[in-house]
Amino acid sequence: MKLQQLLFAALTSTVLAAPLVEERACTPQGNGGGLNENGVVNNNCCTDITIIFARGTAEFGNVGTFAGPPFFKSLRAKLGASRVTVQGVNYPADLLGLATLGAAGSPDLASKVRLALSQCSKTQIVLSGYSQGAEVVHDAFLHQGLSAIQAKAAVLFGDPFNGAPAGNLSSEKLREICAPGDLICETDTLIATLNHLTYGRYADQAASWVISALGL
C-alpha cells in the first residue's frame, strides 16, 4: 500500500512539474518595426494573441511597412511583447495578384492559422491585412475554409472589399479602417492616392480595438 502511495505521489509530482506547451517561456519578439515577422513559423512561444498579417501590393518582407509594423508595435506596447505573436503571409503581393482577388495569398494564410493553432490551441487568432492583403483575408474565409471558430477577429486596412463580410465573423469582430480620401476602400476603383499610404497613423486605433474585441 505504501509502495503504491509513493508511486502515485512521484507520478503526480512529475506531472505537475512538467511544463505545459501553453505555458512555455516566450522568446522576445521585438517591438514590431521589422519587414518580416515569423513568430508562428519559428514556434517562438504560445501567446494570448497571434496576428496573421498579409501585406499590401509591392511591399517588402512578409509584413511590409505601411500598416503592419506600426500596428504590431502599438499592440506590443499596450499588451507586452510576450503576449503577442505575429506571422506574415508569404505570397507575391504583386500587381498580377490583384486579379486573383486574394487567392494568391489565402492558402498560405490559412496554412499559418492552422499551424498556429496546432502549436498553441488556446491562442486567439486575429487576421489582418492591408490593401491586397485585406483581399487575402476575405478569400481565406471564402475559399480556404476558415471560420470564426479559428479566427476570433479581423482588422483590415484600406480594404478594396470594404463593406463585405469576412466569412461568418460577426460585425463586432470585424474592423474596417478606411482612411478618408482613400479611393481604394471608399470606391470600387483601384487607383491608389497618397491617402492609401497613411495607415500607420491608425495603429493605436487598431490595437485598442483588437484588445477590446478579444476582451483582454
TrEMBL record:
<keyword id="KW-1015">Disulfide bond</keyword>
<dbReference type="GO" id="GO:0005576">
    <property type="term" value="C:extracellular region"/>
</dbReference>
<keyword id="KW-0719">Serine esterase</keyword>
<comment type="similarity">
    <text>Belongs to the cutinase family.</text>
</comment>
<keyword id="KW-0378">Hydrolase</keyword>
<keyword id="KW-0732">Signal</keyword>
<feature type="signal peptide">
    <location>
        <begin position="1"/>
        <end position="17"/>
    </location>
</feature>
<dbReference type="GO" id="GO:0016052">
    <property type="term" value="P:carbohydrate catabolic process"/>
</dbReference>
<feature type="disulfide bond">
    <location>
        <begin position="178"/>
        <end position="185"/>
    </location>
</feature>
<protein>
    <recommendedName>
        <fullName>cutinase</fullName>
        <ecNumber>3.1.1.74</ecNumber>
    </recommendedName>
</protein>
<dbReference type="InterPro" id="IPR011150">
    <property type="entry name" value="Cutinase_monf"/>
</dbReference>
<feature type="active site" description="Proton donor/acceptor">
    <location>
        <position position="196"/>
    </location>
</feature>
<dbReference type="GO" id="GO:0050525">
    <property type="term" value="F:cutinase activity"/>
</dbReference>
<feature type="disulfide bond">
    <location>
        <begin position="46"/>
        <end position="120"/>
    </location>
</feature>
<feature type="active site" description="Nucleophile">
    <location>
        <position position="131"/>
    </location>
</feature>
<dbReference type="Pfam" id="PF01083">
    <property type="entry name" value="Cutinase"/>
</dbReference>
<dbReference type="InterPro" id="IPR000675">
    <property type="entry name" value="Cutinase/axe"/>
</dbReference>
<feature type="active site">
    <location>
        <position position="182"/>
    </location>
</feature>
<dbReference type="InterPro" id="IPR029058">
    <property type="entry name" value="AB_hydrolase_fold"/>
</dbReference>
